[in-house]
Specification:
Length: 296
């Protein structure tokens, strides 16, 4: 509540510019300005947070949308922080409903970036290089935030539904859930998770965007913890022992020689040690020493 008040989330628009469908979210009127009920804002934030977390946990993605000047920087920064897609310059018509065509533009952008790196530009004239550079800059500006997107997102986060009316319409048509900040001059109907709040103040926009980005980060951390837990359980269930250089190998273990017995195969006859019989001096035959040395 304190951070919402400090960010000015409770300030709505002038009374004359209100949308009657926002009546249930308005607390009072002060000096010709509507004050938003922050109790309902907090409840809406919790619902939106859980929705985003569940979506990311199920393996789907989030798209951050905010093309107004106050939102551009916050949208890009927080989307990059949590590793999700964003649109902060201009919403191109058909970005969701005609994604196959958008994919072609994304491939073109990647091709131009590759040409710049692999030395293709060295064989072109200055005029051709300038033309391709302008084309790449234009594509980067509009599609840079969704360059790696292969499928439509699982959920949309939108700042100002009036300005992003096309994005809202496309998401509704595709059946994609929407989390949106709705001010007193917006229509909350058709928004899956409306968050009543100020959508013009930079601090308020940054706060809402951070909350959604935190939900994504938390879901990713949970997924990481689950992987670690499953690995731990597999190890406990008697997995094969891994022999490393540090572990004591069988041939390196000390052997008690006295207790060590050699098993002889059945096919090989046991070697019997010759029995030495000591001869007495009387039984010993006389030896001619001279003849022995001659023979040698």
């Amino acid at each position: 509540m304190k951070s919402l008040l400090e960010s000015g989330v409770h300030f709505g628009h002038q009374v004359k510019r209100w949308d009657p469908r926002m009546k249930k979210y308005i607390f009072a009127e002060r000096n010709g300005i509507h004050i938003i009920d922050l109790q309902k804002t907090i409840q809406a934030i919790k619902e939106a947070y859980d929705a985003v977390r569940k979506t990311v946990s199920s393996g789907k993605t989030v798209m951050f949308v905010g093309t107004k000047k106050q939102a551009q920087q916050a949208i890009q920064k927080e989307a990059e922080r949590c590793g999700m897609y964003f649109v902060n310059n201009r919403w191109l018509g058909g970005m969701l409903t005609n994604f196959t065509t958008i994919k072609k533009s994304l491939l073109r952008l990647k091709k131009l970036e590759k040409m710049e790196v692999d030395g293709t530009f060295e064989n072109l004239t200055k005029k051709e290089i300038a033309s391709l550079g302008k084309e790449r800059a234009k594509l980067q500006k509009n599609l840079g935030g969704i360059k790696e997107m292969k499928d439509p997102p699982g959920i949309l986060f939108i700042i100002d539904t009036r300005k992003e009316a096309i994005a809202v319409a496309e998401a509704q048509r595709m059946g994609i859930p929407i989390v949106a900040v709705v001010d007193t001059n917006c229509n909350p109907e058709g928004i899956t998770y409306p968050i009543p709040g100020n959508d013009d103040a930079i601090r308020a926009i940054t706060l809402f965007t951070q909350i959604v980005a935190n939900a994504v980060v938390e879901a990713d951390n949970e997924a990481g913890l689950k992987i670690i837990e499953t690995l731990g359980e597999e190890g406990e269930e008697g997995a094969e022992e891994v022999v490393t250089d540090a572990s004591v190998r069988e041939e390196d273990q000390e052997v008690d020689i006295e207790a060590y017995t050699v098993e002889t195969p059945a096919a090989v006859a046991p070697v019997v040690a010759p029995v030495v019989v000591e001869e007495s001096e009387e039984d010993a035959l006389p030896v001619d020493v001279d003849r022995v040395y001659e023979s040698k």
